[in-house]
UniProtKB/TrEMBL annotation:
This is Uncharacterized protein. It comes from the Eukaryota. It comes from Aegilops tauschii subsp. strangulata.
Amino acid sequence: MPLLYKCINTRRRKVRTVAEGLNGNTWARDIQGVLGIHEIGQYLQLWQLKQQVTLHDAPDRLIWMWTASGTYTARSCYEATFQGS
């Protein structure tokens, strides 16, 4: 949804959480400017996708998939750079 993404103020994109955006469809009100046919198409796609989203009150848990422990290290990041090459 890159075209629709550009229609949202940079500051708003950086501070709005997904939960805040979904609450009362606030994300839709963040869209500014004149929308063309492609932006409207992306809006409709996003609207359908968001209907399938269910958020839970549990805190987020970040897991680094490149280590067995799930913990990020600079070394694991360096090694992940070469995965698949």
